[in-house]
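Work Package 3 (structural annotation) set out to generate three-dimensional models for the target panel prioritized at the project kickoff. During this period the team completed the workflow that converts sequence records into discrete structure tokens, so that structures can be stored uniformly alongside our sequence database. As a representative example, we reproduce one entry of 324 residues exactly as it appears in the project archive.
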Amino acid sequence: MSADNRPDTRWGLTLPLPMTGIKQLKPLVMAAEEAGYDDIWTGETNGPDGFTPLALAAAWTERVRLGTGVVGVFTRGPVLLAQQAAALQDASDGRFVLGIGASSNVIVEKWNGFTFEKPLTKVRETVEAVRPVLAGERGPGGFKLEIPPETAPPIYIAALRDKMLQLGGKIADGTFVNFLPISALPHVTEQIQIGEREAGKPEGSSDVVCRFFCIPGDEDQAMGIAKFVLAGYATVKVYEEFFRSCGWGDALDPMLEAWNAGDRVKALEVAPVDLIREICIMGSPEQMRDRLAEFADGGITTLCLTPLAAPDQVPTLIRDMLPR
């Protein structure tokens, strides 16, 4: 912890890596720990679930922190979340972080058939239900873990909009943000600090994790991939609302109009490059490190990197993105 209460900067890596199966992860995970990464964080969209890669990484590593970044609260009940968290905390010798979030209407409703409503309430109630169980107490319906973890794992909340960011600062041990324009960073950290103040925590003491899509090569080479990534996120309602709240609605409208009309080619052509430049990390490893340092200076305390490159480029890129 630094003198101003802010946690020291940590460097993390996302699993699974793009275009890399679980069976291919072991040497990459071991190399990342050896290179100096502090964290491994999983996602949960259309690849593996959020827990399985971490269970394997727990056996492959000795030092790195292992976090779900993040798993949804609508598609798992609080008891199952607590069971999975307790198992990984045990398997990793206390290195696990349970990152949870509301996810999106696409994943919750279209893919899994649940109702996506009152996400703020659902996240808050899940934290309130899971935390006592992980501490060895009774939870929903009288459930109690047979063997609770020796130390309860921290709980992080994924957040985009103000109320969820404030909730992260207030009741969680950390907040996980994603697809963050650098111009919105001061507002995002301010909202987390509002929650910290409400809870009587030191301002700026929370861990703030942000996932970054890192694309090597010059901008002309990287922009095509970056446009594809942005379109995949910004056309989902929760992200569209987030970007509009950040002042990017007018810039997004041409892309959204084309996308909703079914013209994917045009949507990519008119994707807002200024927004992409604020979000994606592009260029040489040195340029990427410099850009990431700007986010760290602005209040991101854990930099979670998702390298978007050909599989044969990934091992070198993982190493080269770390500070020298």
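The beta strands are 10-15, 39-42, 65-68, 71-72, 96-101, 155-158, 174-178, 207-216, 281-283, 302-307.
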